[in-house]
Give the backbone structure.
Amino acid sequence: MAEPKLSFSARLRLAFRVFFRSLSDADFANVVRNVASGEASAIPKTPQGAEAVPMPRLKEATPESALQLLGLLQQGGRLVDFLEEDVSHYSDEEIGAAARVVHEGCRKVIHEHLEIEPVRAEDEGSRITLESGFDASSIRVTGNVMGQPPFIGTLVHRGWQTRNVRLPKLAQGHEVGVLAPAEVEL
Amino acid sequence: MNAKRFAVGIDLGTTHCAIACVDLEQSSGEEVALKQVPVPQLTAPGTVEEQVLLPSFLYLPHPDEMTQVDMRLAWETEDGGITGSLARRLGTATPIRLVASAKSWLCHPGIDRRAAILPIEAPEDLAQISPLEATTRYLKHLREAWDYQYPEAVLATQEVIVTVPASFDPAARELTAESAKAVGLINIVLLEEPQAALYSWIQGTEGEWRRQVQVGDVILVVDVGGGTTDLSLIAVTEREGNLELYRVAVGDHILLGGDNMDLALAHLVRGKLAQQGKQLDLWQTQALTHGCRAAKEILLSDPTVESMPVVVPGRGSRLIGGTLRGELTRDEVRETLVEGFFPVVDAGARPVARARGALTKLGLPYAQDAAITRHLAAFLGRQMAATADLEGFNPTLPEGATFLHPTAILFNGGVFRASILAERIAGVCNAWLQAEGASPARLLEGADLDLAVARGAAYYGYARTGGGVRIRGGTARSYYVGVESAMPAVPGMEPPIHALCLAPFGMEEGTEAELPPQEFGLVVGEPVRFRFFGSSVRREDTVGSVLEQWSEDELEELEGVEATLPAEDCAPGEVVPVRLQAAVTEVGTLRLDAIPRRGAEHWKVEFDVRGSEKRSND
């Protein structure tokens, strides 16, 4: 858990960076002051004994990256436009033309930012065997779930999993709640 | 800290830039630690993403258009423009604030390249910038992106190679070097893009290239970028038992590229939509161009697809009601692209020059003939003698040949992702070869079409430090100044002009030409302008040669050069006899000096980049 010790030259660079940024950035300077006066717990303390702090059993999902991804899907594939539109009075052909925009654009966004692959490589419909100790979070068994593994069953859905998520960085203070700005042509 | 750790290749393209580097500490011989360097850039307001390519676009926003927060990069910037993906996107809706194709403007002989003229259609309250400044801004973004990722090895301290089109004239090369200097990159080296593509191929073979080419090979590099087409010929020779590569010829500057092709398709689909009574605005036309590019690539690569829908979303939030649907068929793509840009022609075909309209608006001098195969035929025909006097090369041209026979072809540029286009060029070229009894040219494959130039440039930086093969060849032109002949004046006739050779063909970097015997009288304190010429075919001229006449094909007039002797050491008005000397700098730019008969001073002779054409909309 302990971070590696910084070398002297790294500490020197850090000192200069802190110095200059404290001059130019008031918020940053506040944080430095708190750390220096020991108010903030930025200096990690080594745990003494087994002082078990109870872990919260549930956690809030942060909305920021969800909104960011939704913004990307809107920008690249007009997803929000599509979902928010009342499709009932359009013909299938018209919806189909728009679906191409959404499909093409969203697919590009997804592939640019996530590495997606099936959980199981086998064809859907094929018989597969689940050995004891299979990963229940990536494989869901349904139907006649009873007895002891190995389980033999039909692959109904291959599943999807992401390997790698590469979301763009956001500027400090950027408003992610705006999925698409209103456009006004002058 | 002083030793260079990286050789860095920078592809400064018309439509995209890219950086690659070779870690010199971890490379030896054919084992080259080469990697692409991502470029963090704004992809949306407030959103910074690393991408492999930096689109060469600069957007100059209105002060109220975007918050400072939303323009923030990971590093400090002070000049208030947006470079890269977001710039290109904003420009589709607000083209009046978008700087694009700066590189084509940088080598535009008709305009003042230091004058603030971009964006061309800028509103009055926008401070325009010069083509030089735009290039500087792209380089600055790339430098900052590098320095951010390698703070321990900032770019200014590394071996940096910047690529330029082989067809760039001396003035455009000098401007490129100048913009590098302006962002603190003093010791860069310029490299021709087709050579960089070949270096990338060499690097990719991991030493196998020596088995894939042989003495007597002539490699044709066809580099079709977003905005330009660049042709080069590289011969394989032998010296002391080792294979050597010798760049023997480069083509003219052809302002014709992949963007023109996508635009041609978009116009076709727009025309079809117009027939159905559907009009597209500018924004939709841009979207259509993107759609056509994607459809083209599928239609040209998958033979089972007969047609592809191209949909253009409306700009409003009503996606379904506002979407237009067009269609592009395989036959249309073939007709427009393959037959339009790569028609089957014979080896004697030459580009058609149309007379320019009298009322040309200020714009880029796009190639008048869109047929790349005709430009290729003209290039090979004109360069027939390119290998004639090459040492260590056995001339193999048969009797009666009408063009230089390439034996291998390397394609570069994203256009060739549609493999049918490469096949077409190869097919046309092979038909020419067959007609003259030569065997077909083989294809050199394996280099990345988009990234080869940056990678090859990085590899060249490594090769310069002693790690690999280098392509020789020096300057691809000989250079001349115009001298008025001493003939008696004939009323009503311009005195005939002679061309005095200052720089012979093939001058290597870091060499000086001899001093020509001819002297010019320069008036101290007054600028004197010389006409300036280049030739890509006159290989035999030496310094001091005077041409009394030449055919139009042999010598091309470039922007003039100008010498001013400062009045420091001599009295103003005094006439000082000087000789003009050419040198090629270590950077790879041409340098002309005025050297007086007495005294040790040299005065630099400047390339005139102020433009000769008058703006017709003045």
